[in-house]
Design a protein that fits this description.
The complex is a heterotrimer of chains A (about 350), B (about 290) and C (about 325). With about 350 residues, chain A is of the alpha/beta class. Chain A has 14 helices and twelve strands. Chain B has a single domain, classed as MetI-like (MetI-like fold). Chain B starts with 13 loop residues before the first helix and ends with a helix. The chains are: A alpha/beta (about 350), B mainly alpha (about 290), C alpha/beta (about 325). The interface between A and C is large, with 42 and 42 residues.
Chain lengths: ~350, ~290, ~325
């Protein structure tokens, strides 16, 4: 599997010298009446400056929880059980509400899956866009001009006229463009996008992804792009982290991970994507088995029960993130040099 | 295949869920206990009253509370505690009968409005709003002048004024369900109207309705007490809480006990049913259940 | 003889009240599906592909008899059904069934799985007991102990299986599946599609799959039709359409459902603009305002349906 695609590339490591955000051993628990769910366990990753990091995984893998923890919007029953999220000398995992209010909407902004619910339905687009610039020491007409400028940036046709419409008068794709414009208005360092294209049709999805790519290059901000859709991640991201059952199981440059996945879960996930299967088939691949119960995460590898390559060590020993290639790590014993020899 | 063989989610049953909600909810427990006491005493009233609630006694009049008369006696020597217990029976009877009538009628009209043709929906809404626009007491007084004061009049007034509230809620719920995929799926399978209504629509609108009805019990009892207080409801000497209050009010300068005795149960009923309704909502609310 | 033969099907939706429409001198309804024709043979699968507003789900509802057509004909098993009476439908609903988009939301929430899968039997006065429930659950690979569960206790994939079991209860000739993989994780999507293929191989049921996901259509359908604004813009054997799309919209949709390959990033045809409203159709070709290959003639002339060697398209300048 260690293919030529990896070896001929002189890839820089994803751990750039100076990441924008670095998550260090983050663990998050949820208290529920049926017990404590260990939703995130020992997550370590870095959001590089000026790059797009994709967060991929199936439902229940914890990718949204991780995204929400990076903007301090975890549910009330969530508790940071350990680790830190470092950004510019601050630890986002243990920030006071007041400090969060200063950070959100200035250095960190977020766009959501459903643009209708993140816009205020009873106020015009223009008023909402002017209001969120309350921190800027500029006049109202300047704020208005800036709002128009940003709506043009997101390629909303007839931007000036759109200031006077209400969210429901726009289509889903246009609403998502407005949300992106609002998120970028404050020129954040980090833009978190939680499944921003899932509610959109395929052709609009491609439009929004292309737009995000262009804007990221223009503004130079970092983007954390959460998605279950491998196609859009391939399209947009520089780096990718694959999550399974509350852990990062593999991360690296998107090219390496997509061309030569080194964790059996990543491989299985890619095999399941019908877009990757060139020959028409009536028998599609699946991943047998189910997610482990996150109230009692398994002692060894979390994917062991569903893994076709599992062996003795997987049950006994929780695999660390092994180096799996240039700038690529995978939480699988098969990447342990010791196993290669054996 | 594999997804299918997943072990069942441990889903707590109704009892377990109720207990878990109540364990973190002291007011809910208070509500259930109060309601149990009130309903229990209402049912058992004839056997547990220490004295005949309507018998005029030769003993002390306007007496303060004592070991023999827990809430004292009134101006003609009747035991107030016995009258309060017996009054509870009347109050519960009114609440049960009028709310059952209002629920049934509201359910029927709401289903018709929600599922029927547009013009019928509009017409029914107009009727509901017209009925709602009368203040309950004023409407009650009007009905009393027409058919005369009696226990039945009270129940009729309460039922008629409550129907529009329930009907509107059922209508809203039905409209939402009408386009739910499972209803479309049932229709596509050719399900008959009775089965569609009673198996698929009704059970899904009943829950919120019953919770609301439980919270409405105090309102109904207050209406009954109010009308009776004004002499437009239950006629003396039948011991309704409103009648007790009215009797006591005339002699409040001599002794406050009849008024106090008449008010305590009304306060307890209000608290009990409101707390219980809130706890029921927590137990049955599907959103909270999902989070659990 | 084809099992299903749809010719020039038209379906209208109300847009505003008739009185209001008359006062405004506008039409009170609009055509959501305008002139769609296709046939389906027993044992075959047809994919109807389109984005939201293309009219694909409207066709499904009309086929299953929940929405009246306003024109054209639908022949099922040799008989015209577009004007069928209530009594005809009681019989027809035994021969066609539908899988709905929302795996959990399409199951009546207060019924157990046992009652849910046997519901079609019960409606038709057939025995609907434990034996039948277990047979149907076995058909879709669910263990018998699922019979006592309620929909909210099921995962998406499990609920989907219950939906399949219910749709198969009466051994229908036609199964309409509206977005059968919607809301399911990638690793579960395959399970559901494999199950459908298995059922088809065993019982010879004809399937109409309605979806926006071209990748799915590629693997499970024999024929496919691409819809845009209530019309077919292209139709043909799935393999051929994938190999050589003739209509620009088909090509754009194929590009929008890409193989996840970071190297192929810059070869996409990104469409500009959004789907117009069926109330205000563009002049000429419906697709010309968004078409990267549009020419002057496209705005003026409405393209007709061109059929050649088993394939068809609606484009003046096919690719």
């Amino acid at each position: 599997m260690a293919s030529a695609a990896v070896s001929h590339r002189t890839a820089e490591a994803p751990q750039t010298a100076d990441p924008l955000v670095s998550v260090e051993g983050l663990s998050v628990d949820f208290a529920t009446p049926r017990g404590t769910i260990h939703a995130l366990r020992d997550i370590s990753l870095e959001v590089p400056k000026g790059k797009v990091l994709g967060l991929v995984g199936e439902s229940g893998c914890g990718k949204s929880t991780l995204a929400y923890s990076m903007i301090g919007l975890l549910a009330e029953n969530a508790r940071v059980a350990g680790g830190a999220i470092r950004m510019g000398g601050q630890d986002l995992a243990h920030l006071k509400p007041k400090a969060w209010r200063d950070l959100r909407g200035t250095r960190i902004a977020m766009i959501f899956q459903d643009p209708m619910t993140s816009l205020n339905p009873v106020t015009t687009i223009g008023k909402q866009m002017i209001d969120i610039q309350y921190r800027e020491p500029i006049s109202r007409s300047e704020k208005r001009a800036r709002a128009i400028e940003f709506l043009e940036q997101v390629q909303l046709p007839d931007a000036a006229a759109k200031l006077d419409v209400y969210p429901h008068q726009l289509s889903g794709g246009m609403r998502q463009r407005v949300c992106i414009a609002m998120a970028l208005l404050t020129r954040p360092d980090l833009l978190i996008a939680d499944e921003p294209t899932t509610a959109l049709d395929a052709t609009l999805e491609l439009q929004i992804v292309t737009l995000l790519r262009e804007l990221q290059e223009t503004f130079g901000c970092s983007v954390l792009f959460v998605s279950h859709h491998l196609g859009t991640v391939a399209e947009l991201c520089d780096e990718v982290a694959v999550m399974y059952a509350g852990e990062v199981v593999e991360r690296g440059h998107v090219r390496e991970v997509f061309h030569a996945p080194r964790h059996p879960y990543t491989q299985a996930l890619f095999d399941c994507d019908p877009a990757r299967i060139r020959q028409a088939t009536r028998q599609l691949p699946t991943i047998p088995g189910t997610l482990p119960d996150l109230r009692q995460p398994p002692a060894g590898c979390a994917f062991r029960a569903r893994c076709s390559k599992a062996f003795g060590r997987c049950a006994a020993e929780h695999p660390p993130l092994h180096a799996a290639g240039p700038g690529q790590v995978a939480r699988c014993h098969l990447n342990d040099p010791a196993e290669d020899v054996a | 295949m594999t997804d299918a063989t997943q072990s069942p989610l441990p889903e707590p049953g109704l009892l377990a869920r109720s207990l878990s909600v109540l364990s973190g909810n002291r007011t809910g427990v208070i509500g259930f206990v109060l309601v149990a006491l009130i309903v229990g005493s209402a049912i058992l009233a004839p056997w547990i009253v220490p004295y005949d609630p309507t018998a005029i006694m030769t003993g002390p009049r306007m007496a303060p509370p004592s070991a023999e008369h827990w809430l004292g006696t009134d101006n003609i020597g009747r035991d107030i505690f016995s009258r309060v217990i017996a009054g509870g029976r009347i109050a519960m009877l009114v609440a049960a009968a009028s709310l059952t009538a209002a629920l049934s009628a509201g359910l029927l009209l709401g289903l018709i409005a929600g599922l029927g043709p547009r013009w019928l929906d509009n017409l029914l809404l107009l009727v509901f709003d017209a009925l709602r626009s009368f203040p309950t007491i004023v409407f009650g007084l009007a009905v009393v002048t027409i058919i005369g004061p009696s226990l039945f009049t009270v129940m009729l007034v309460v039922a008629i004024t409550s129907v529009p509230i329930y009907a509107r809620i059922v209508r809203t719920q039905t409209l939402a369900l009408k386009n739910a995929e499972f209803i479309l799926a049932e229709r596509a399978m050719g399900v008959g109207l009775p089965r569609l209504l009673f198996v698929h629509v009704l059970p899904n609108v009943l829950g919120p309705l019953l919770i609301l009805a439980s919270m409405d019990v105090p309102l109904v009892i207050a209406t009954e007490a109010g009308l009776s207080f004004l002499g437009m409801g239950v006629r003396p000497p039948t011991p309704s809480w409103g009648v007790i209050l009215n009797d006591g009010y005339n002699f409040i300068r001599n002794s406050p006990w009849p008024v106090i005795g008449g008010s305590i149960p009304i306060i307890l009923v209000t608290l009990g049913f409101t707390f219980m309704g809130e706890a029921l909502r927590d137990i049955f609310d599907p959103k909270l259940r999902k989070a659990g | 003889m084809s099992l299903l033969e749809v010719t020039d099907l038209r379906i209208r939706y109300a847009r505003q009240g008739r009185l209001k429409a008359a006062l405004r001198r506008e039409s009170h309804d609009f055509e959501a599906v305008c002139g769609v024709s296709f046939t389906l043979e027993p044992g075959q699968t047809l994919g109807l592909v389109g984005e939201s507003g293309s009219g694909k789900s409207t066709i499904a509802r009309t086929l299953i008899g929940l929405k009246k057509s306003s024109g054209g004909s639908i022949r099922f098993d040799g008989a015209e059904i577009s004007q069928a009476s209530g009594r005809d439908w009681a019989r027809l609903r035994r021969e066609m069934s539908m899988m709905w988009q929302d795996p959990v939301g399409s199951l009546s929430p207060r019924l157990t799985v046992k009652s849910l899968v046997t519901e079609p039997l019960r409606i038709n006065g057939l025995p609907a007991g434990r034996t039948e429930a277990e047979r149907l659950l076995g058909l879709v690979g669910l263990p018998a102990e699922f019979a006592t569960r309620y929909p909210h206790q099921l995962s998406g994939g499990q609920a989907r299986r219950v939906g399949v079991a219910r749709a198969l209860a009466l051994d229908p000739k036609l199964l309409i599946a509206d977005e059968p993989t919607a809301g399911l994780d990638m690793s579960v999507q395959g399970e559901v599609l494999n199950l459908l293929a298995e059922v088809q191989a065993r019982s010879g049921v004809a399937i109409v799959i309605i979806t926006h996901n071209l990748n799915l259509v590629r693997h499970v359908t024999d024929q496919m039709a691409i819809m845009y604004l209530g019309r077919f813009v292209e139709q043909g054997p799935t393999e051929q359409v994938f190999a050589h799309p003739r209509h620009p919209y088909t090509k754009a949709l194929l590009a929008a459902n890409p193989e996840p390959d970071p190297e192929a990033r810059h070869e996409r045809v990104a469409l500009s603009g959004e789907v117009p409203s069926p109330v205000n159709r563009p002049s000429g070709c419906d697709f010309h305002p968004r078409c990267p290959w549009a020419r002057e003639a496209c705005a003026a002339k409405e393209p007709g349906w061109t059929e050649e060697s088993g394939r068809g398209h609606r484009c003046l300048f096919p690719l």
